[in-house]
Design a protein that fits this description.
single chain; disordered N terminus; Uridine Diphospho-n-acetylenolpyruvylglucosamine Reductase, domain 3; Vanillyl-alcohol Oxidase, Chain A, domain 3; binds flavin-adenine dinucleotide; alpha+beta; five-stranded antiparallel β-sheet
Length: 563
Amino acid sequence: MSLVLLSLALAVPTVYATVPTISDWNALNNTVGGRLFTAIPFASSCFSEVDGRTVTPLQEQCDIIQQHYSNATFRSSQFNNFMNTQWESCMSTNEQCALDASNASDSLAWTDFPCEQGSIAPYYIDIRNYTDIQSAFNFSNATGVPLSIKNSGHDYFGRSSVAGSLGLWTRNLEQISYNASFVPDGGNESYPAMTIGAGVPWEDAYIFADSNNVTIIGGYSQTVGASGGWLLGGGHSILSPVFGLGVDRVLQFKLVTPDGEYRTANAYTNPDLFWALKGGGGGTFGVVTESTTLVEPRAIPLQVAAFSFNATTNTSVDFLALLAENSLQWAEQGWGGHLKLNGLISVNPLLNLEQAQESMQNITDFVQSHNGTGVVETVSSWYEFFVKYVLTAQEPIGIDAAISSRLIPSSVFESQEARNALVETIANAAPYFLTISTVTPFIYNNYTENSTSVTPAWRDAVWHFLFADLWSWNTTTDGKIAVFQTLNNLTAALTDIAPDSGAYLNEANVYEPDWEHAFWGDNYPQLLAVKQKYDPAGLLDCWRCVGWKGGNDSVSQCYPALD
Ligand SMILES: Cc1cc2nc3c(=O)[nH]c(=O)nc-3n(C[C@H](O)[C@H](O)[C@H](O)COP(=O)(O)OP(=O)(O)OC[C@H]3O[C@@H](n4cnc5c(N)ncnc54)[C@H](O)[C@@H]3O)c2cc1C
């Protein structure tokens, strides 16, 4: 549906510095086996004006889009959309092709606005092998056409979405395998490991791991990719407190670097690149085709704590204070999860059921006294937990949303005074509360200092705390700017609580002011050196990524200026 023959593409307006000729595009199409396509916006079938042309809406297709507008699996199976829909639009110019997320059949969305290309890359390659990526780098080098890399499209900064770019869609790199004694190229030790193609979503990785009776440590979403931005930016799991971040467990990458080389990166081969890929962020050092990651060679039984109650303004603050009071002890015991103002969901691979019940006793008491419900129970595996608790409670997608976050260190939980300040800061901004993710590698002990490039703030953090704000399909550019300013204020409030800490680059404020330090701490200069070594021509660029060319660069044209 989203695939239109190349010949039609020539009508799509572009913003290239150097406009490629028809024969340039045709030559590219030939080198990638005819898998160069054009993309028109996800919801264009509902509109009667598309990119300045009057067209007849395609009702049948429009019905399908309306039906699946909030369906992450449907969205991630197509190139022409993103999970947070502002990244389909060009926010700075208000060009969009959006439906009303609160009611996808609201016809005002397609009668009040025309459909415009926005940030959807007008051309993309359906990547099937590394030579496709080499062709794309050659093309970009020769023509100046910027590149974007899209896997699932979950990125909170819109880094997989670049207006006017040639998109590299990795979703169909779906290979997946298990090797009980994987040896990284050039090494001699073996590990139980899964090798996962760049397009594999977490749900598929979990199903595969379960069928091989092993446990892979991954994200709390069925559609986030296992080998793309999640891993390259750090990759947290609710099992990370005990088993580490994704970057603590990856053994090897295969990728094409922007100089056109197809490379292996591991502890023995290109170790500088390997280090940079372990936290330096997606879309920066090359296009990964697959990663190989350590697995636990068994299904791991977990204790699960799941509680909820109907919170009021007052009881939610009381509950928050209780969470703050207990969080350090829970981190030391190996709990990981998502804590809310009206309940929590956490897992623990270390305690037995009785210990888990005891550890959660004061939560049980609180929730019972507020007429809530809850359980502490044992599940036999991560996959059993995933099916029962994760698939039934996915974050809403297909909306315009942005976040603000901070890693909150253990020192904040050690004194009553600091805990009070934390609770007060959050309570003052309660309408923006999103979640407290207890996903930091707090007691993970198989870690060598400086072995990854994520901010060291991860290691001592107890909470990865997130605020969020939303807007609607017809919010003006000024309205969006106001949301981002609010999120900046919230970031400032969190930074006051934890000034020396940092933030998770995959789930952070789009306008994080101190982004180099917040995302990478003292690792930034070394990351920049690796970037310059493997991408000397700067072919890959993205918003607040290592080596970012800044707000005036063409890849940043759709982010509105806040001043
Ligand atoms: C609903 C939801 C749930 C989430 N849950 C978690 C969670 O549990 N844990 C967690 O840590 N994070 C989570 N995240 C954040 C998630 O890690 C990031 O959004 C991440 O960037 C997604 O990576 P992706 O490849 O799936 O998405 P994309 O948006 O496709 O890509 C993200 C970034 O990686 C780059 N990229 C993608 N593929 C490649 C590749 N093959 N080579 C090089 N660069 C590539 C893109 O260019 C972009 O910069 C969640 C996000 C959402 C929206």
